[in-house]
Each structure stands twice: as C-alpha cells, then as structure tokens.
Amino acid sequence: VSQQLEEEVRRGFAGLEDPLAGLLDMLESSSDWKGKGHSLGYYISTELQLWMKEHPAAQQSGIKLKKLQARVLGILAQCPANLLDPLISIYQLHTADRNYLLEHVSHLYHKGNYKEATMLSVKLKLQPDQDVEKMCTPLLLQDKTNLVEDYVGEYPELQSKLLQILDTWCEPGFNIRDVTRQYQGLSRYKPDKFNRKTLSKLVFRLLDRFNVDPALCPNVVNQRHLRTLNYLFYKRFVEKSMTQENWTDHVQSTVGENRWLQEHLVQLLVRYCDVSTAARWAQRCGLPREVLPCGVADELQTLQVQERVEDAAKADSYEESKKKDYYQLPIPRANIHFLQTWEETLQCWEKVLRPGQVVGIDMEWKPSFGMIGKPRVSLLQIALKDEVFLLDLPQLLEQAETEGEKEKLPHFIQTLYSDAAITKLGYGMSGDLNSLAATWSALKDTDKQARAVVDLLKVDKQVDVLSPEQSYEDRGFRQPEKGLSLLVQHVLGKPLDKTEQLSNWEKRPLREEQILYAASDAYCLLEIYERLCKDPASFGLSSDLTESLVGKPSIKPRAKKQLNKQEVPSPSGQQCKGSVKETLCAPAPISPKEFSVVCDNMLQGLGRYLRCLGVDVRMLENEDDHRKAAEIARQEGRVILTSGLPYQTLQSQVAEGRCFSVNCSEKAKEQALQVLKHFNVRVSLADIFSRCQ
C-alpha cells in the first residue's frame, strides 16, 4: 500500500503545472495535517521534498516564489513541529527577506502564539535579530524551558544574556510579580513553576549545559552558597555530625572574600552560637563595625584572640571517648604512607601488583554541596594487610603534567582494576569509578575492564543484622549509623567515626584526623571481608561466599522484584524466611483500625486519604524535621510512610519493616492502594469515614 501511495503521489506531482502551489492548495483546504503524528499532509509534504531534489527544474523563483512563501507562512503558524522542516525546505524560506520573516514572527508573538513564534525563529535562525528576554519570558511562565534552551542553544552571546536576565530576577529585593504582571492573560500559565528556587535550578542547569562561567550569575551563586552555609550550620549545631575543623574549612571555602556572605555568616553565628563567636569570625573576615549587629560590634572591641584552656581539655577528653566508641585502625601510624611523587608511589605499585593480593580501595573528594560539575577525586586510598597508601591525586596529576608522563599513573590504576589475580574490595565502587573517570579522562573505561572486584555494598544488602535502633541506642550514639559505618558496626562491633567525611579533601596539608579517617575507610574493608569469609553463615550469607560476592545468586532467598526495593514484613516486622523459592510470605490481613501510621510531611495528601479509610494517621507539619517521624513511630508503635532520601535515614531508626517508601510521583489514591496492599490492610464499607476528618 505504501509503495502504491508513493507512486500515485509522484505521478500527481509530475502531472501538476506547479506542484508547490498544489501542495499549498491541498493544505489550505484540509485540516488533517494539523493534528499530531504522521498525517497524509505530512506524508505528501515529505515526498514532495524528496521529489523536488530529483526535479530541480520544478523549483520556483522570483515573484512567484515570494507569493508562495507568503502563503506558506500562514500555514506554518498552525502546523505541527514535524511539518516545519519539510515546508521550510520546499519553499526555501531561508532565502526569504529577513525583515519580512521577523515581521511575521512578531505578528505571531503579539497574537499570543509564543511557542509557534519561537519554534519558527529557531528553524529560520532569526534569534540574533530578536530580544531574548521578550521571546523567552512567556515560555518560562508556561514552563517550556526546553524550548528556551533550544532558542539560545547555538548562540553563546544569547546564552550569556539569558543567564544574566535570569540572575537579575533572582536578585534580593527583586519582585518577580513585576515580570508576571505583564502576562496576566497568558494561557497555560504556571505561576508555581516560576519562582526563585525554580529559576535558580534552571540557571545552574544552563551554566552546566553551555559551560558558562558562573561568575556571570552572582545572585544565584550567592544564594546557593547561602543555602550551603545554612546546611553547614544544621550539620554542626543541630545534627552535630560535623567536627569544628571540617565545619571551619567548609565555611571559609564557601564564604571566601564575599562581603555579602560574610555578613550573613555573622548573623547565623549570632543565632546558632553567641556574639563572642560571631565577633571572632567578623574579625577573621575583616568586617567593619558599622555592618555588624550591636552586640557583635561591642564584643569585637574587647575581643581576646587566645584559645581557652578548657577547649583544649574538652578536645583531649573527646579524643579518648572516640577511641572507646569507634572502630580503630589496627596498624601503626608509621604504616600509613602519604604519597605525593611518582618515586614515592613505586613502593606502592610493587607491593600492590602481586598475584593473590587482596586490597581495600576507597576515594575521597571535596563535597560539592550542590555546585556545578562532577566531584574530582582528591585522595585514593589503597589498603594492604600491614599498611595503607594514600595517593595525593591532585599533586600526582600536576607532576605528571609537568614531566610529560601522563600515562604512568592511569596505567597503574587500570592494571590494578583489570588484573583478575588481585581481589579489589570497595563499597559503592561504581560511584567511585565514575568520579575517578571525571578526574582523569584516561580512566573513563576502567569500570568496563574491572575484574575480581568485590563491592561490599552489594554484600551489605544481603547481611542479616539486628534492629539498627537497638544497637546504636545502647551505645548512646547521637545519630544512627548508615552505609559502610553500619556494616562495620554489624561485622566488627564498632562503627566508623564519620566526622571527617565532609572534610575539605582538596586542602593541603591534610590534618592528622583526615589521614587516619581515610586510612580506616580503606582498611576496614579488609577486616570485613576476612570476617565474612571466615563465617558467612552467621551473617545470613551463602556458605560459598565467593559466589555471593561476584554477583551470582546465593542460596539465601531474595525477592526478585518488590515495590520500592523493600521486603514485605510480617505483622511483627520481622523478615519472612525459610522459603526456598524467591517468594515472600504476606502478613496476616488486618483492619484499618489496627493499622497506625505516621506520614512524613511530603505525604499529607496520602495521610488524609488513609484517614478517610479509617486508618489511624498522624502527619508531620511542613516545618517538622523528617526524623520526628521516627520518634513518633517508636513512641506510639506506628509505621513510617515516607519517600525519597528521608527513607534511607528513617528506615535505620526503626525496626525492620516499620518504614515504607511511597512513590511520590503518584496520586494519593494510588499511594494508598500501594500501602494497603503492602501491609495487607482490608477496608470494609464500615471503615470509610469512621474517623474524624
């Protein structure tokens, strides 16, 4: 049929005196081509485009072509995107008078056809003669950011101009309503998508995509740094999971010489600490008294710079308590080698590249705190049974560049990963290798060539453990352990001290605490592996541990596929075991009256829906911290319903099966069905609206 249609169409073209006018007659008298998809009009247009290339004599020129171009512009305003290219090609619109085309696009724009005007401008490459702010603003209000990106895609000057405009809209004190007010009657207007937060994300995406210098957008960058400052204050003074040294490093790195950020830093210090601390930082930043709050200015005048003796005493006692509570490196400090030159690394290569060797590998990089680009590895740790090598990658990279020997270090790393006779241990190894590839392009295929690698993150998911909340509360830890630290606690008895995790790993020299942390992170992998190999059964692993580690199915029953990658709990919250097949036993059915939950603050719609069905529901308020859900769950015996990243934190704070992650992209009804099915809750007619709404 397709071939017959093609032959018929081509005979039709040959029989027409003017095929170009004939196509326009057909399109103007029909509406079939206006819909989406490949219509008959689209088929005929694309066939004519091919036919014209084979019959150039049929092409028109001069006055006749101009008249045809005037007619086709009227059709372009209504046609779907797939017809634009064929019609522009057939009627040679790139040769039409530019002012005439700009006038036509302007007419479309003023009629409110912003999308059509922009698409036509992109196809005809009219952007250099247009106002980028005027063309892009209504599209941003309609959440058509992809079209905006296409509009400036091939024009670096327009990219910079657009980014500067967006940055101006994010300026403190700028009222975004001044922009939106001009477009009150705009169809498909999405005001909720047009705010500083959304604009900030868009700016960073465009900076990354077009590789533009972030200095072009000082307002957005400053706001991002301010959010980083707030996050650092939360980690240090609320969560208390960051050491003073790490916090100080990151605050200095974030604030830099920026006077606006320095003033905000002082305000945050007054709120979280005291005027004395704020005054010390004000002095460090060289802020004049007139920009400081009154109390800080007075304190600055009488400030004594000496460190208090009590602080040193507290630090000593803190170090002693750490030794008692956390995993300690079992090798002497003299066996940790910090390597900065190629000559120093030779001893490392000789010992590591031996058949039968087992090595623990880890990497560290400076936290990005949401800034642009992939992290670059600052430190590569390689642990052997009796010693640990810490490779200063930035220094080694610089030396390789200077001496023209770029291939030496990548060659060693690739040899190490590809050698099947050397067992490499890691935790979350794919993420480490991605960061390594971003640091050194020569290493981009290392993950594909890797052999004999054991990712203990995969093993971690198979290890049977006691309830995490019990283990950390007994020890009196401030925060529940997670990730590698939790695995170390389960297998070796004490968790890792992760206070150095958020260090500035690019700053040299590294502090002693950073060196010990980095060495421990790599060395503990050797101890975990050794313990699991000795007694895999006591951790619920296959007796043939090697099979488990290389990714082959182990004899322990696991579900092939579960919603949200969670396992179905029994009513007691314990895992169902003993089935040889990969199936899990369902919990006994319960009524909504017997089911009590606490909903995280992003799931209030789900909470209201479940309450309508008779479920006992408590909901967090918008301002509540996610961890409050765990407190309520433990005190009142409730199941936590949450979503996204908070799930990882919350599930470790309650018994197994007492925290469930809901798909946030679904509507409340679908979420409720998912929860009811998972916990086998049977709703009867009498349950509906049985609770006060």
Note down, in words, how this protein is organized.
Keywords: Exonuclease, Hydrolase, Nuclease. This protein has 693 residues and is α/β, with parallel strands linked by helices. Helices cover 52% and strands 7% of the residues. The chain is built from 32 helices and ten strands. It has a six-stranded mixed sheet with strand order 1-4-3-2-5-6, sandwiched between helices. It is globular and about 95 Å long.
Name its key features.
globular, single chain, 32 helices, 693 residues, Mut7-C_RNAse_dom, hydrolase, Rossmann fold, Nucleotidyltransferase, domain 5, 10 strands, nuclease, alpha/beta, six-stranded mixed beta sheet
Report a brief summary of the structure.
This protein has 693 residues and is α/β, with parallel strands linked by helices. Among the domains are: 220-301, no CATH class; 336-466 and 483-548, Ribonuclease H-like superfamily/Ribonuclease H (Nucleotidyltransferase, domain 5), CATH 3.30.420; 592-679, Rossmann fold.
The computed structural class is: alpha/beta
Number of strands: 10
Output the strand order for the largest sheet.
1-4-3-2-5-6
- The radius of gyration computed from the alpha-carbon positions, rounded to a whole number of angstroms, is 32 Å
Unreliable stretches (pLDDT < 50, length at least 5) are 304-312, 466-478, 551-584
Largest pleated sheet:
6 strands, mixed
Q: Helix count, per DSSP?
A: 32
CATH first level of the domain at 336-466 and 483-548: Alpha Beta
What is the name of the CATH topology of the domain at 336-466 and 483-548? Nucleotidyltransferase, domain 5
Average pLDDT figure: 83
CATH H-level homologous superfamily name of the domain at 336-466 and 483-548: Ribonuclease H-like superfamily/Ribonuclease H
Helical fraction: 40-55%
End-to-end span in angstroms?
A: 62 Å
Percentage of β-strand residues: 5-15%
